[in-house]
Amino acid sequence: LAVVAPVPRWRRAFAGVAEREDDGDVPVRHPRFTSLPGPLDLLRVALMAAGSRAALLEEGWRLQPDVLDAHYAWPDGVAAARLVDGLSAALGRRVPLVVTARGTDLNLSARSPRAARELRAGLARADHVVCVAEALRREALALGLAPEKVSTLRNGVDGRRFAPGERAAAREATGLPADRPVLLCVGHLVAR
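and the corresponding structure tokens:
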């Protein structure tokens, strides 16, 4: 496994991101790409693909992957669709592409006519599209994807790491009252 996760250059939020790091035994590359503000952001897919090409080919040659797995349909998955043929040619064999849609990549990005066109073209090139919710699957189908090419696979959790424990001890450790209901919600509370 290797990760190529491009980051926009000149954006303060990403200034401290190292170009290379390791997550355990997984090498992570963060190639830079130019990200333009405003209406020029529509060039993001092409710029992301151009900025990621060298790192993807280097990691592909080193790793000899069985699949290219892109997360977030737009712009990442569409950029991966532009790069998968070059990766396949470099390796001398076809590398299948799987794209995972996670939410705003289909719900919001597809509202732009240009992004919707790019999504249609990019997702059509994918061998399979995974959606983390059934509502996203419906959005992918609305873009014209064949139903047999799209699956719903909800986000999982590591049950060994996150499991119910002893309630009283947890409440005491976190300072929560022992005799009152507690509600925890993780996620955005917006209709997307």
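(Above: one complete record from the training split.) Helices lie at 44-63, 73-91, 104-107, 113-125, 134-142, 167-174.
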